[in-house]
Amino acid sequence: MSKDLDANVVTQLDAQEKSMVLLFEIVLTGLTLRYAAYKRNVVFPHGGATTYTAKAVMFDGVSQSLEGQIGRITVKFDNVSRDMAAYVDAYDFEGRILNIKRVYLDADVHAPTTATEYVEVFSGVMEQPKEIGRNWLTVTATEGKPLKKKVLQETYNIPCGHRFGDSNTCNVDGNADLASLTASGTADSGSISTLVHSALTQVDDFWNYGAIEITKSGTTYKRKVDDFDAGTDTITFDIVLPVAVDGTCTYVVYKGCDKTWDTCGANSAFGPSADNQLNYGGFLHIGDESES
User: 203: which of 16, 45, 228, 282 lies 20 to 30 Å off by Cα?
Assistant: First the structure.
């Protein structure tokens, strides 16, 4: 009689061997403890010199936001051999980093060979351990990074987090063409709220919604453009400066857009070639607040 296992059982065993493994890194001052929540040690990357020691690990609590961010996590590490208690005696855990990574073993029960082939589940700052028992050491950490999930990072509404130079923002690639939408020079005059330069020959309101950087005496101030008056070559800032603009000030101004397709698109004459879609960076199918 054959003593071979049923093929389905073998398949299931193989699948379990290839299941994910959690790796834990407790980054202390001058020492990093590396553990694998697995039945044997895991060398990651495989063939490398970094060994994660097999250890019994339990999760006592996970606090997670709607965006998939772990805000607080409690982990229990096996302390039967009193090794964890010894580390607590010798090292300060509070304020140090706890990293949790996920890797997948291959058909030969080996971790990936590339050091970047992992998913970061959590990275946060530890609190002082509150429980050091005969069986477990309990560690709590907060301020984790987001889980890597396929979720919308931008809410579908009128506001959009686009900034100059961003790419793939909201519905449109907002990689602004700064070369054709930028002007720079030395101011003729100004005040704490304005900059005047005769070289600003664009049409009225051309620089509206844009950004400007003013440098005086080695210090650079960043403001948004509240208005551009073509008749007086004057840019007005959204917030006043702590110093007044004068003939020693240099500046760089960037063309902006109010993030509505109507004024950023071809039917507005405020952009180069009557088109400022490169700086749109908003949602295509939502109007402004007056239309909602």
Answer: 282
